[in-house]
Design brief:
The complex is a heterodimer of chains A (198) and B (379). Chain A is of the alpha/beta class and 198 residues long. Chain A contains seven helices and eight strands, in the order H-E-H-E-H-E-E-H-E-H-H-E-E-H-E. Chain B contains ten helices and 14 strands. The chains are: A alpha/beta (198), B alpha/beta (379).
């Protein structure tokens, strides 16, 4: 059985970036799907942070170490350099203090991995051009009822990393689970970025 | 409460220890007795035992009833029983009354065999670590080398932590609920006001009130009333009592007028009629003295580095007596000590008392965690 196929495409790519035996912190880890997979396939030392108690229960059910906490309060509970990889998957667009969390990620870990919906995706641009706020596969909310408060394009995110003195190690932009090589900021709806200190 | 998933009718047992014990204070007891109850069945390799450590006013009667006609079941009957989070179909669960208690274990109100009179003021103060030593002897007696889990709320959580530090190899999982790594000045202050209420009661007689045929009821009542205020949250109290008047109108006097006064006095009266004041003093001192980092240069991380257990830490948002911030200190120390830990911060309006109440997310976390322990020991 190849359980890798049961992972969401973006999580599968993240999993591919993580070396066996690494110490991994998953921020906004949800039900612990990624950590659980990494623990059973790559023997990682995993730790999750999750705000929602129902998701915390799901993580505990999987036997994962999980800390119930709001990422907006930072990662003060973790020592400098405690982890190899720190993952923030489809969460950053709902956070207030984006610079803060990116800096915290590289304080507690050597490598950061962020995934986010690409606001520069052509369908989003088209909906804006026709006078409406975008609603799409990766941004499935109406403007008046959404957890998302900070949208960016792939280019915007890259620029922010540069401003914070961070280096992009790898970047993949997806649409419907498939990598987009040509005009990724236009044709890709979901971005995955692996970064570290410059 | 459904009877279907109750442990049913239970019987308390007494373990007599003739081997003397020297306590942290230097005082010694030549012999002592511990009251305990067990639920469920110890498996063949004695790997499914869970120890429940009680809080300030707790005891060994954790679950079930002594007789069908009992009004109330054990103090954690909602958590412990067949099919409940601490599932007695899978675990062998032990509750005991700690040394110094007043529910049958040797304590200040017990007869000192050397004098034939109650210990009273001569009963030594007992620390959390002393309790753990006596609990370890009880575990030896029951043939338990290693607990699947040691679980406690509040002062009970401190015992669970102390177990993991004092006997790392004897604890697989340590569940610390609504607890703290040590008390703050404010928390010690509350305890001292409670103690002062007892110590200054004219019927306290320096702790030897038994021989005067009286009990310092007024002091103990005040201590309990104060305690209850700190166990509830402002919101919870407001929701339950508000400014509601017993008779519906102002009486312009000092009798009970507001419902909250009625509640506190009732709780104070009930408690002071059945609990021993010396035990209350002793339990509050055990809380104050607890500081597992103390023998590690004040470093809790160093203390926790010695542990081998996996930890689950749980706190409740409206608990201000043992606030989530204090539980997060435990979690941070465990993380810094590189120990496996999970932490849940449960939304609740019930203050410190929340750890004793039914709450789906709380029970969900407990059930999920204990379910994994059951699977682990079965593997």
């Amino acid at each position: 059985m190849s359980a890798v196929n049961t992972l969401r495409p973006d999580l599968k790519l993240i999993a591919g970036w993580i070396k066996p035996g690494s110490a991994v912190l998953d921020l906004g880890c949800g039900d612990g799907e990624l950590l659980h997979w990494l623990a059973s396939h790559k023997q990682i030392q995993g730790m999750g942070v999750e705000k929602d108690v129902g998701q915390v229960v799901s993580c505990v059910e999987k036997g994962l170490s999980v800390i119930q906490s709001d990422l907006e309060y930072g990662l003060a509970q973790f020592e400098d350099g405690r982890f190899d990889d720190v993952v923030l998957s489809l969460t950053i667009q709902a956070m207030h203090n984006i610079e803060g969390i990116l800096q915290e990620m590289l304080r507690v870990g050597r490598t950061g991995i962020v995934t986010f919906p690409n606001f520069g995706f052509w369908e989003n641009r088209w909906q804006i051009a026709t006078g409406r706020m975008p609603v799409s596969e990766t941004i499935p909310y109406q403007w008046y009822n959404t957890p998302n408060i900070h949208f960016c394009t792939v280019n915007d995110f890259d620029r922010l990393l540069g401003k914070l003195g961070m280096r992009i190690d790898e970047q993949i932009v997806l649409h419907q689970g498939e990598p987009v090589e040509f005009l990724p900021n236009l044709l890709g709806s979901l971005a995955l970025v692996r970064f570290s200190k410059r | 409460m459904t009877v279907a998933n109750s442990v049913g009718i239970v019987t308390a047992q007494k373990a007599v220890f003739d081997q003397p014990i020297t306590l942290s204070s230097g005082a010694a007891l030549p012999r002592y007795e511990l009251m305990y109850e067990t639920y469920g069945t110890l498996n063949a390799n004695a790997s499914n035992a869970i120890l429940i450590c009680h809080a300030l006013s707790g005891h060994h009667h954790v679950a079930g009833k002594y007789a069908e006609t009992d009004k109330a079941a054990g103090w954690w009957d909602n958590m412990v029983g067949p099919g409940k989070p601490i599932d007695t179909d899978r675990f062998f669960v032990i509750g005991l009354n700690n040394l110094g208690g007043c529910h049958g274990s040797t304590g200040p109100s017990s007869i000192n065999p050397e004098t034939g009179k109650p210990y009273g003021s001569t009963f030594p103060l007992v620390l959390v670590r002393d309790w753990v030593e006596t609990q370890a002897r009880l575990a030896d007696r029951l043939g338990i080398k290693q607990f699947a889990a040691v679980i406690g709320g509040s002062l009970g959580g401190m015992q669970a932590m102390r177990w993991a530090i004092s006997h790392p190899e004897r604890v697989r999982h340590c569940l610390v609920i609504a607890s703290a790594p040590k008390l703050t000045a404010q928390n010690i202050a509350f305890n001292d006001v409670a103690r002062q209420a007892i110590l200054t009661d004219p019927e306290f007689h320096g702790g030897d009130y038994y021989e005067h045929g009286v009990v310092p009821k007024r002091g103990l009542r005040l201590a309990r009333m104060l305690g209850h205020i700190t166990y509830l949250s402002d919101d919870g109290m407001g929701e339950k009592f508000g400014r509601e008047l017993k008779s519906g109108e102002y009486k312009y006097g000092f009798d009970v007028e507001f419902q909250i006064e009625s509640y506190l006095r009732y709780q104070g009266d009930k408690f002071s009629g059945m609990f021993d004041a010396n035990t209350y003093l002793l339990m509050t001192k055990a809380l104050d003295y607890f500081d597992p980092g103390r023998h590690f240069g004040g470093d809790l991380v160093a203390a926790l580095k010695t542990t081998l257990a996996k930890f689950l830490v749980v706190s409740f948002t409206s608990d201000w007596r043992f606030s989530p911030a204090r539980s997060r200190e435990i979690v941070k120390a465990l993380l810094d000590a590189r120990r496996p830990v999970s932490y849940a911060e449960i939304e609740s309006a019930h203050g410190h008392d929340a750890f004793l109440m039914d709450d789906e997310p709380y029970f969900g976390v407990m059930r999920a965690y204990l379910n994994n322990i059951a699977k682990e020991i079965a593997a």
